[in-house]
Amino acid sequence: MISQNLVKDLTALLGAENVFSSEADRQCYAYDSAVLPQCIPSLVLRPTKPEQIGECVRQCYEAGLAITVRGAGSNLSGGTVPDNTDSVVILTNGLQKILEINSEDLYAVVEPGVVTAQFAAAVAQKNLFYPPDPGSMAVSTLAGNIAENAGGLRGLKYGVTKDYVMGLEFFDYEGNLVKTGSRTVKCVTGFNLAGLMVASEGTMGIISKAILKLVPPPRASRAITAEFSDIQHASEAVAAMIAAHVVPCTLELLDQATLKYVEDDQHIGLPVNAAAMLLIEVDGHPGQVADEAAIVEDVLKKCHATAIHIPENEEEKNKLWAARRNALPALARARPTCVLEDATVPRSQIPAMIRSLNEIKAKYNVQMGTFGHAGDGNLHPTILCDKRDKEEFARVEAAVDEIFDVALKLGGTLSGEHGIGTAKAKWMEKETSRGTILFSQRMRKAIDPKGLFNGRKIIGV
Question: How many Å apart are CA 305 and CA 299, to the nearest integer?
């Protein structure tokens, strides 16, 4: 139970407009985008100055309250669902300033609540490029991306969020400000605490500032789409492109079910009769782009593409990329419950994973659409169902178990970009080891003695 004296102190610190205590307000922060039980927190706080984060943490930790940090809540593994009702959610969306964009040294300094797409647009206005582009970038925040190590469509060539974090400032359980990294390209001052915070899902502290690497934008690009009458041929084309030493900036796959749902939603003329479609983009120097596009087209023909198309202009290309980004929302609208998974395999194993997904779909008689970042092995098999139908949902859960088993047998991982949270915690030891879990628990105990920072997430306390 939260004491009224603590509520008064936090209200004095933040202002009444940034302390949410009514049940209606608190209900909004009881869930994220995963299919998991909700948990309404006792209090929601919205700091608007970095130092307020530290003071909120200090007071709540001393009071023994579980703490969950939340950006936009678009994560997909339960990372922003409170651990229990006797808890506090601390929002970072009150800190939305881009503090610096440095064109000479190619970095930016941002507050945690800056929205990813808005940041990318501001950087582009300076003729610079921030590549990480998670599907949720229109709403997700940069600190949330860091906490989840978000990926995106360009991850194949440009990497993911961790590859762009140069430095961080965050607050520990005592409210102390911790600084790690710098504005320099090289920095080995002390432990790599920024690396520890990436993908930590709110279990290590609360980020208040980030230094992010920027790069020059590519000088040219070319988009290519390919249709296939057999999804196995599409998956083989993905592996063949990488084997040909072409690394597209984007290499996305949509199966027939996904194409149909997106077309019903977007009405842009997608090839709904195709078994699968690849969306490909190569970028770089104009000469390199021409050479790589030619290799890609040759690979597609050899892998039995039934149609190859090059968008005529930027508008047409953007429609296709918007369709891919709308794959999840389109699927989610089809049935009451949408179970999006994130199993990832080595790129050479994409054909085997696609084959297994089709077998699992038939074995458990589930409705599934598959799309994702095929070029880096990160597929999103998405099962559509109704959780209220207990028999159906039992089949869904069995299918998910087998999806993870297959991914691990193929040398893959439980999660390429969606995190572990509570949704996948039970499989952690299967991928790692008992020693890994114990080591991680001891480390967390040192960083968070009371186990109050998202204590149930990833490996428990």
Answer: 9
Model confidence pLDDT, tens digit, residues 399-449: 999 999 999 999 999 999 999 999 999 999 999 999 999 999 999 999 999
Q: Give bridge partners of residue 284 from the DSSP assignment.
A: 220
Q: In what order do the strands lie in the sheet with 43-45?
A: 19-20, 43-45, 87-91, 66-70
Burial class (CB in 10 A: 0-12, 13-18, 19+), 355: middle
Q: Evaluate whether 115 touches 144 at the Cβ level (below 8 Å).
A: no
Residues 339 and 332: their CA atoms lie apart, in Å, by: 9
The pTM for the full model equals 0.95
- ∠ CA 450-454-455, nearest 5°, is 45
Burial class (CB in 10 A: 0-12, 13-18, 19+), 344: buried
